[in-house]
Design a protein that fits this description.
By secondary structure, this protein is an alpha/beta fold. It has 2 domains: 8-217, 3-Layer(aba) Sandwich (Rossmann fold); 229-331, Helicase, Ruva Protein, domain 3, CATH 1.10.8.80. Helix content is 46%, strand content 16%. It is built from 14 helices and 13 strands. A 5-stranded parallel sheet has the order 3-6-9-1-10. β7 (142-145) and β8 (148-151) form a beta hairpin. The longest helix has 19 residues, at 8-26. Residues 1-6 have low confidence and may be disordered.
Length: 338
């Protein structure tokens, strides 16, 4: 992984190898959750942020920490609480006294946001003011304090966690804020065999050690490769159609008009394309197919399609709608060639 790729094919093979090495290291600690690990790697490769949602005890925090240990990057964890203030995460100017001269001046002390990987643990437990400071940094990749604007390190991405069960004393992220996340990753319960393996690993004496397999420069190079992967107009049109079909209106399918309050915006289509490019590289391919778009549709769209009360009363969720959306978009046009 130290030489620069000469061709797209070599680049794709190198990217796939890096992903396999990274997954293997994470697998030393995390049992199962292969889809979650893949989606996390796709989000990072596509230079996007991700939010992991699941009930307590599913190792969401451990997964992010294990990922951080496998890449040679700075890592900070922020435990979000109701009393957390914006300056607690961005940093603030403090009065500094020079012991030799006695001169006093203000000096900026950087907060935990100044890191390559930021784990925003239980992001919905902090007030909107602090959430907004984080989301601004996510979007602009910079922090403004004391009239000065400071760029955050590269690469920079936020991996947030959220507990969907406890809502008392929480501040749910508004839809506009959720839209800043490239992926909304659902973390589900392990199966019986995986749960038994978790018990073997966590109740014994062995402690797995994760080795660093990707450096900062290598990750930046891989992120640039993602942007350079070509995508055919027909596949691009499919991503556009998938996004536009999610919006209620005259041209929308009946199941969208019946169940959806509002659909995905243009940022969703951008996320679909970037994530599909990263997905194709994970598989060692040097081009994007419609299958890649379909594979990333759920994590890219589920937080961007808002269901109405009628859909929720029927027990539907956004994943059900996205499945119908894929079927409808694929079957109602012959112009797509993946």
């Amino acid at each position: 992984m130290n030489d620069i790729p000469i061709s797209q094919q070599q680049a794709a093979a190198k990217f796939a190898q890096a992903y396999q090495e990274l997954s293997a290291q994470i697998g030393r600690v995390i049992v199962g959750q292969n889809d979650v690990v893949e989606q996390l790697c796709i989000a990072v490769a596509a230079q996007g942020h991700a939010i992991l949602v699941g009930v307590p005890g599913l190792a969401k925090t451990l997964l992010v920490r294990s990922f951080a240990e496998a890449v040679d990057l700075d890592f900070n964890r922020i435990q979000f609480t109701p009393d957390l203030m914006p300056a607690d995460i961005t940093g603030a100017e403090v009065l500094h006294s020079n012991a030799a001269t006695g001169e006093r001046s203000f000096k900026f002390v950087a907060g935990p946001l100044f890191s390559n990987i930021v784990l925003a643990d239980e992001i919905n437990r902090t007030p909107p003011k602090t959430q907004a400071a984080l989301l601004e940094a996510m979007q602009e990749r910079q922090v403004t304090a004391g009239g000065n604007t400071m760029s955050l390190p590269k690469p920079f991405f936020v991996l947030a966690t959220q507990n969907p069960i406890e809502q008392e004393g929480t501040y749910p992220l508004p839809e506009a804020a959720l839209d800043r996340f490239l992926f909304f990753i659902r973390v589900d319960y392990p199966n019986a065999d995986e749960e038994a393996e978790i018990l073997r690993r966590t109740t014994g004496e062995a402690n797995a050690v994760i080795e660093k397999v990707i450096s900062s420069d290598e990750l930046l190079a891989l992120q640039e490769l993602v942007k350079s992967i070509p995508i055919a107009d027909s596949v691009l049109d499919y991503a556009v159609a998938l996004t536009r079909n999610s919006r209620p209106g005259t041209d929308a399918p009946d199941f969208i008009n019946t169940n959806v309050t509002w659909g995905a915006g243009p940022r969703a289509a951008q996320s679909l394309v970037m994530a599909a490019k990263a997905k194709s590289l994970l598989n060692g391919k040097s081009h994007v197919s419609i299958a890649d778009i379909q594979a990333v549709a759920k994590p890219a769209l589920r937080h961007r399609v808002a269901l109405n009360f009628a859909a929720e009363s029927e027990g539907l969720n956004s994943d059900n709608i996205i499945e119908q959306l894929i079927d409808f978009t694929t079957s109602h046009s012959t112009s797509f060639d993946g």
